Amino acid sequence: MTREMMWTGFLATLLIAVTLGTAALREPTRQAEALIRLREEAVAEGTDLFAENCAVCHGAAGEGLGATPALNNEGVRAMDYETLFRTIERGRYNTAMAAYGVNEGGIFTDAQIDSLIAVIQFGDWQTVSARVAELGLTPPEAVAVEISEETLASVQSLPDGEALANGLSLYAENCAACHGGNGEGTALAPALNAAELRERLSDGDIQRTIEQGVPGTLMAAWGAALDGQEIADLTLLIRRWDELAAAGVEIPVVEAPPIDMSPEAVAEGERLYSILCARCHGAEGYGTRMAPALNSQTFLTQTSDAAIQQIITLGVTGTAMPAWGGRLTEADIAALTAYLRSWEPTAPAIVDPSTSGQGGGLPAGAGPPWRRQ
Ligand code: HEC
Ligand code: HEC
Ligand code: HEC
User: Fold this and answer.
1) pLDDT tens column, 294-305
2) 143 in contact with ligand 2, CB cutoff 6 A
3) CA distance 192 to 198
4) Which residues lie below 8 Å from residue 80, measured CB to CB, with a gap of 6+?
């Protein structure tokens, strides 16, 4: 072996060692890059799953809608992985949060649940909201009532006025659509301003109803969306509603924008109805044993477009009436509402024999449960 050959051999060995060494140094970064790529893929997959399944209740940007809590905050982001996994896999018992894991009769594999968790922990909610909009799945705006500065000021001047005014703002935003602008009740929900209610329910009862809801009715549990103080302020408002009336406080009811009743919209609604709703509510809405008649004078005159849209979107928890919001667009739900509304001029006044004389002529088995006999 010549000196040159030895030298070349040494150099080659050195070169290999150096190359390997640098590769070893670079390895952690490569792994980190691979992890980031995997995470990005998971976030992208999870974003679509979120848009199609969760945005309807949790909001397009995870901001929370109505009684459904927000997911876009530090508290949820910082929840441990196990808790998040269990919540999505098994749902929360007795709430609208259903079990999504295949093991629990749901639709998602473990990997899909992981993708959803990736969105919650690492996703960018602005991107999510843009994707939800792109898919046409932005949920309809909740119907809220505006209260003027004047009204708020007059409430603030009452004893303990700050808490009362806060309760009123929360009420206008979250409750008025069902319970009426002045707590007078609507076809969807009972009055909250009645002396009878104040006598029947203690503060604790009212608080518990708001926090836990009434399962099987449109009254959702608000405990996850409102904190203890907010629920206390709402309770105070309900307790002292007669003082508002005495002080002349009246909240205007803001009507939702009218829905499109064009022949095209009604025809589209009819098409969707025959595919999705007729099997339960019957051909032309005459009802079946599965579900109440919708083609009824009483139901249609007593239920506003906004209320019908809300029922179709959110379903009725604890009954066979599904929430359609995740599967239908806002335009679909408006078209269905237009189709139902188109029956009104000719709708029969259906009287259920079992309730006639006491039920005020509600259609068979129809109307919210608290109105049934
Ligand atoms: C029909 C409405 C609805 C849908 C759809 C829905 N959720 Fe929920 N979700 C809720 C409600 C209500 C709660 C609060 C439950 C409670 O009171 O603990 C909740 C709670 C949660 C929580 C716990 C939040 C916390 O602060 O403890 C997570 C996480 C969650 N949902 C994720 C999801 C994901 C992911 C999806 C889609 C796969 C989804 N949800 C779909 C209604 C819904
Ligand atoms: C989607 C419609 C809807 C919304 C929104 C809603 N409620 Fe209700 N609420 C109902 C219905 C329906 C009932 C009757 C439940 C039953 O059958 O017992 C009810 C019952 C109640 C009761 C018990 C009344 C009684 O006579 O026993 C209270 C209190 C109440 N709601 C407060 C609230 C408050 C406060 C809010 C807002 C944070 C709210 N509700 C939002 C539908 C709604
Ligand atoms: C699997 C059966 C089923 C299907 C499918 C179904 N519904 Fe329902 N729906 C029900 C039941 C049951 C109720 C009564 C819930 C209750 O007890 O308050 C109901 C209630 C309603 C109500 C409120 C009626 C009232 O008197 O308060 C409306 C509006 C409604 N459904 C519309 C629809 C529309 C629109 C579709 C199709 C997109 C649809 N439903 C599909 C079972 C169903």
Assistant:
1) 999 988 988 888
2) no
3) 8
4) none
Which ligand 1 atom sits nearest the alpha carbon of residue 49?
Answer: 38
The architecture in CATH of the region 149-246 reads Orthogonal Bundle (1.10)
Residue with the nearest Cα to atom 41 of ligand 3? 277
Tell me the pLDDT tens digit for each residue of 186-203.
767 899 999 999 999 999
- State whether the beta carbon of 168 lies less than 6 angstroms from ligand 2: no
Compute the average pLDDT of residues 275-302.
Answer: 89
Both structure tokens of 18? 């150096």
Out of 3.40.30.10, 1.10.760.10, 2.40.30.170, 3.30.420.40, select the CATH number for domain 37-134: 1.10.760.10
**What span, in angstroms and rounded, lies between the C-alpha atoms of 366 and 352?**
9
Which of 100, 105, 67, 70 has the alpha carbon at shortest distance from 86? 100
Cβ of 55 below 6 Å from ligand 1: no
Enumerate the CATH 1.10.760.10 domain ranges in the chain, comma separated. Answer: 37-134, 149-246, 263-371
